[in-house]
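Forum: Protein Structure Q&A
Topic: Joint prediction for protein chains with partners

I've read a bunch of threads here and the consensus seems to be that you should model interacting components together rather than docking separate models afterwards. I'd like to see that in practice. Below is the full input, 478 residues plus whatever partners are listed. Could one of the regulars post the assembled result?
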Amino acid sequence: MPASAATGDAVVRIEGLSKTYGTTPALHAVNLTVRRGEAVAIIGPSGSGKSTLLRCINRLEEPTEGRVFVDGVDLTSRSVDINKARREIGFVFQSFNLYPHLTAQGNVRLALRLVLRLGRAEATARARAALDSVGLSDKYASYPSQLSGGQQQRVGIARALALDPKIMLFDEPTSALDPELVGEVLAVIATMRARGMTMVIVSHEMQFAREVADRVVFMNEGVIVEENTPDELFNRPVRQRTRDFLARVVRH
Amino acid sequence: MGFDEFARAFLNYDSLVAAAPLLMQGALVSLLLIVSIVPAALALGILVAVAYDLGGPLRRRAIIVYIDFLRAFPPLVLLILIYSCLPFLGVRLSEFATVVVALVANGSAFFGEIVRAGIESVGRGQREAARSTGIGQVGTMVFVVLPQALRNVVPPLASNMVELAKATSFAAVVAMPDLLRNARTAQDIVYNPTPLMAAAVIYLAVFWPAVRLLSRLEQRMVLARR
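Posted by a regular:
Agreed with the consensus. Here's the joint model:
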């Protein structure tokens, strides 16, 4: 069962968010709030805009219209210090995007040195603690090419986690993994969830979304079609679109 | 013409001994030119490539013009042009400085273009990863993109370094007492081409191993990519 839905303040507040690529609409007037301590899963067919929505939350994508607040800071404001804001927003990529020329420890340490300006020893200690927390105590000195996909993704999580973010964003964190490696990554995310980390997960793992999320958001063609508790959304979907999608992806 | 005659002219021991001090001085000047020009051109090339990458459309167009112009312009012509034009513009540069300016400009264009391609070969995800942790544009470039970009273009960079080092022999035309020029001077003194032969051997002795090393490097890069 998921931890009880948090009733805290909003960590993420998205208002009227639209994004168009040229003339192709990717998101249309999306509103979404994520409260402190809450885990929200975003599901939907590919091309439905779920990754674009996630990437707007740390402005890897520039919204065309609308506003995005993270921990009270308006990311869409012209005067925002985006680098400062991003410290508080951990992002985990589908394809890991580890730095191939740095060790696992070096990957985690870089932002600690450059962004938090920690000394070398302190940054190393903190990087190792982050790697410990994802079960990679024996891989400090390994290069990404020497690690399995699951291990690489856990380094990716540690890299984001080491900055002690207010929220973690996961963009299909297990889609690039061999099936037998999915479990170890989901276990790490579940542990973070149990420790009360606020998170938004774009995922194809319906079972995981059901287990870990407080709320599930179903997107289609750039709009949020339906959002509800996992139990309601998976068992009693209201909209026809949602039912069609679930019928296709959930194996009974 | 028999071998004896050839040897007397091109492999004359007495001439070699007589020319040795001049050749040594010349080799030293050539070496000095190489260590002044090659690192500076590489550094400027990297700077040009980074400035292009981080720049807006206007700056990018200006850099393209810089790179294209200097790559198209024959370095020897550039050198002579700078050498003969600057005095008229009231700029007085030593021969050494003239050669350095001309060849650093030429080299930086080639290095700039190579590094630019290297930067473009680094996936977008690398920058996104760095930026998502709050690292700024410059930090991302220096610590994430450039190390990978340079690694990807080591063979063409090294090959152009050798090219540029060889181009320092152009210095002879503006009266720099480098290895080539001093060999010609010695030739006039001893009345035979042995000093020139010796200079050729010295050039070969330096650049042949360099070229061999380059081939090895290229092979290793190809293997590493498999």
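Chain A has nine helices and ten strands.
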